[in-house]
Amino acid sequence: MIGTVADISIQPDAPIPTWFGIGGRAERLARPESVEQLRRCLEIDPALRVLGDGANLLVDDDGVGELVVSLASTPMTSLDRDEDTGLVVAMAGANLPKLIVQTVRLGLAGLESLAGIPATIGGAVMMNAGGAFGQIADVVARVNALDRQGRLVTLERVDIDFSYRHSGLDTREGGLIVTSVELSLRQADPEKLRDRFKEVMAYKKASQPMAENSAGCVFKNPTLPRDLDGIGPKGKRASAGMLIDRAGCKGLAVGGAQVSDVHANFIVTRAGALARHVIELMADVRRRVADRFGVTLEPEVVVWSRRA
């Protein structure tokens, strides 16, 4: 039964939807419909967890005890364009793929290189989502957020510590919660943007298991600690997928979780899969790559559990 606390509907023992299609539940889940309601959620539980699209998330089988906040309500997914500044203003729950399609149609360039990346805008900015063709940091002008005390924080692009799959927002001031993002996009030919969008999507469909249950790339591309023949020199960022493949991990499985035969940096889940299968498989892959190459892989997938 859904209850109400501080005018916010809270669902007990709620499923947490993720792209893996597996995992534990939330003891409590709230769907705030405004920044003010999000602030009230922080009063209920300052340690709350924010659920975006679930595309880069694995929830341990035991679930989580903190309040989980979904930003999927319509007011938290809205989009607007500031006619004075030309900036596109997206609420944190806005769907990134839908926004990409809209901006391409309007002839606004900057996001088309992120085609095929499932995320909310807030989640994409938190992890600086990107791929071979670009990253969202390239178009961020400003981020609006709440700190854990419910205070509004506005950060200019230059004040955010963006780097490869990193923004620093998750640790800044105790962990900021993105409420909206202002994007600086430029006018361009819609037809050329559409062609670029299709080109990126075609590349991903050909090289990634997009039709299967997965959370995208499991590990970040590591910086090599030493020269590795056939891979790269010390200090260069190498493909995690290539390292995993060359360590003989393609097709490796634990229970219902398997390293994809299409792209080695994807773990896909099948019938009977549990979150612990994915966690155990990730650990096995890390061990094998470390043993073979002396490289420690850092997870890109976020794991929620009662222990972290």
Describe what is shown at a glance.
The protein has 308 residues and is of the alpha+beta class.
Describe what you observe in this structure:
With 308 residues, the chain is α+β, with helices and mostly antiparallel strands. The protein has helices at residues 35-44, 96-106, 121-127, 190-207, 240-246, 275-293, and strands spanning 3-5, 8-15, 25-30, 49-51, 57-59, 64-70, 79-81, 88-91, 108-109, 130-131, 134-135, 140-146, 152-156, 177-183, 186-187, 253-254, 257-259, 267-269, 302-304. Strands 1-2-3-6-4 form a five-stranded mixed sheet. Strands 7-8-14-12-13 form a five-stranded antiparallel sheet, covered by helices on one side. 41% of the residues are buried. The mean pLDDT is 95.
Blueprint of the fold:
Elements: E1 3-5, E2 8-15, E3 25-30, H1 35-44, E4 49-51, E5 57-59, E6 64-70, E7 79-81, E8 88-91, H2 96-106, E9 108-109, H3 121-127, E10 130-131, E11 134-135, E12 140-146, E13 152-156, E14 177-183, E15 186-187, H4 190-207, H5 240-246, E16 253-254, E17 257-259, E18 267-269, H6 275-293, E19 302-304
Parallel strand pairs: 3-6, 4-6, 5-19
Antiparallel strand pairs: 1-2, 2-3, 7-8, 8-14, 9-15, 10-11, 12-13, 12-14, 16-17, 17-18
Defining key terms:
6 helices, single chain, 5-stranded antiparallel β-sheet, 5-stranded mixed β-sheet, alpha+beta, 308 residues
Span between termini: 28 Å
Structural class: alpha+beta
Count the E strands.
19
DSSP helix fraction: 10-25%
